[in-house]
Amino acid sequence: MNNYLLLISFSYIALVVFIIWTGFGKRFSGKSKIFISLVLPVVYYVHWLGLQDSKGWPSDQTLPTQFELISADIVEPNQLNNVIGSIHLWIRPTDTGAPRAYVLNYSRELHKKLFDTKQRITQGRRQIGLLYDEGSGQSGVSVGGGMKLGFRNAPRKRLPPKQ
């Protein structure tokens, strides 16, 4: 269970406690009830933040250091429609892990790199993404946070020998 699910669970428990306290606590002053009314939107906001990073939503967290790229979706910036642009990656962190969506800020260099990488995927070559420190000297495209992202062909999986 990740921290966000714990955060969501806590927010539901806090909400129930607040409702019971305000509903059944006739002895409490108006000030305390106003305080609870002001705190409740904060609980909803924390809950919303927890939902954003739970499974199913694209994460804006740092990518794993090595992963398999399943697909990418690129939304180019458009000033006329007030779209800032973004890049969504659908990745599998390990061979046996569940896929996860990530979102990155749009950059023209990353767009070009992913275009070439997606063509290799359509040709049947699995692609491995590697996240490097910008100071490591490795080739790649800057993705912010002092990190570079590069791609290479995955080694072909060998079938086990027949028995």
Task: Report what the structure shows.
- It is a single chain.
- With about 160 residues, the protein is α+β, with helices and mostly antiparallel strands.
- The chain folds into two domains: about 5-50; about 65-155, no CATH class.
- About 35% of the residues lie in helices and about 25% in strands.
- The protein has three helices and six strands.
- The chain has helices at about 5-25, 30-50, 110-120; strands at about 65-75, 85-90, 100-105, 125-135, 140-145, 145-155.
- A six-stranded antiparallel beta sheet has the order 3-2-1-4-6-5.
- A hairpin with a 2-residue loop joins strand 5 (about 140-145) and strand 6 (about 145-155).
- Helix 1 (about 5-25) packs antiparallel against helix 2 (about 30-50).
- The longest helix has 23 residues, at about 30-50.
- It is elongated, with a radius of gyration of 23 Å.
Give a summary of the structure in a few sentences:
This protein is α+β, with helices and mostly antiparallel strands. The protein has helices at 3-24, 30-52, 108-122, and strands at 66-75, 86-92, 100-105, 127-133, 141-144, 147-153. The protein has 2 domains: 3-52; 66-153, no CATH class.
